[in-house]
Amino acid sequence: MTIGSAGTGIAARGWRNAWATAPVETQVARPGGVAVAVRDLLSPADGAQVRHGFRVYCLGSFEVWQGPNKLGSWRSIKAKSVFKYLIAQRRRRVPKDELMEAVWPECEPHSASDSLKVAVHSLRQTLSDGSKGNQASSERSPIVFMESSYTINPQLELWVDVEEFEQCWKEGRRLEVMGNHSEALALYELGEKLYRGDYFEDDVYEEWTFLRREALKDAYLTIVGKLAHGGMSAGDFEGSIAYCHKLLDRDPCCEHVYRDLIRCYSRLGHRTRALAWYNVCLQTLKKALDIEPDRDTKDLHTRLLAGESL
Fold first, then answer.
1. What is the model's pLDDT at position 150?
2. Is residue 2 assigned to a domain?
């Protein structure tokens, strides 16, 4: 049985209360990461009390924080690009040639090699400046070069929002399959809050970001859809409406979301608003796709006009 279907028991168990007991809400420790409560790191400003290690935000605008301090001044734009790529690939060593091709695709190999050395030197200085006086500053470089490959030092305390988002998504799916629907929804809600925007949204033309950005966007939309259905099943129609709006912000032609909005407003007793959203659906589909709503949507409209309960 999937989240949002009848009989899941979400309403009886109070799925929003499960937030406080969600597995990822507790102290988390990822390999090479900072052990902190994820809920305290949902936005850059939220993590100001974390005194050690770096927090990297890749969802939405790219930001790097060390405790209460944001790394706002990068010595080199290319150094920042190198760091982004290493963050994206931080579970493996990145061959020098691959990094050169990603950051300097138009340059000759010799020129790209020289530029990479300069950028890595600048990056090491930036990260070392940001970690002075903290555990992250050690005699070892924050960027390691070994066997013609670069990687972020695994000893560097590092928390990355996109990794936490993916963990919420994967663990939520696992719990849902096991039938732990309220716990799954709590993790989905946490993941939705972590998603401040699309993956590296300032680098939409960088080819190496394309596939992961779209995969993460798909996961986000699925999460929001599950939250909308979960809220409806629990009788939280206003909460479900809020998630439906987020879905339509991303895809205004998503017809089944209009049907959910119509049902929610009808069940709240707002028949006029339900009819208004049918008209929005009708106009949007006509303008964007030159099509009419499908039979299920039209049936809801007919029932509304007849004064039936949805």
1. 97
2. no
